[in-house]
Amino acid sequence: MERGKLRISDADREAAAQQLHTALSEGRITLGELEERLDVVYSARTFAELELPLADLPAPAGAGLPAPPEPAVPTPRDAVHLTTEMGSITRAGDWPVPRALRLTTSMGSIHLDLTRTATPPRIAVDVSTGMGSITIVLPPGGSADVDGVKTSWGSVSTKVPQTPSATGPHLVVTGSAGMGSLTIRHARRGLKDWFGA
């Protein structure tokens, strides 16, 4: 939004009024002009209206109207739902990992790589695999508790510690593996990891 359209506060009005009183003391405006301009200042609602009675006056060094608030920096959402029917979803690199994840697939695949991004210390993960697959790759020190996952004919495979550590994210996983698969592991770094030795 443009600065001029932003709403002002009482503090903004007082700063503008002080600038007008300073202009009077310096002989830049008359007492009559001060009264007229103060009326405008105290009735102003936006920065555009507030700047009007100050337009022909120099701002005091290091002063002037307060800057409007900076837009809030987007932050990762607290909860994200990723869902696919028969397709695939991949998240890797530097991506905003939320505090809660819901992962749903029918016959597709979801692959989440948490090794190259900042993560919350604890992440709640709710899974529903259907006949699909879900894979979560954790950084060194990452751990996962999968005791809350139910299986029918599916499989749950975890190759990371169940006990939280001080150096990686801890996943608390719940939900259902159905007829699909859930795999939680660390990144593969050599042939030994690839062949499961």
From TrEMBL:
The lineage of its organism: Bacteria, Bacillati, Actinomycetota, Actinomycetes, Pseudonocardiales. It comes from Pseudonocardia yuanmonensis. Residues 6-58 form the DUF1707 domain. This is DUF1707 domain-containing protein. It holds the Pfam family DUF1707.
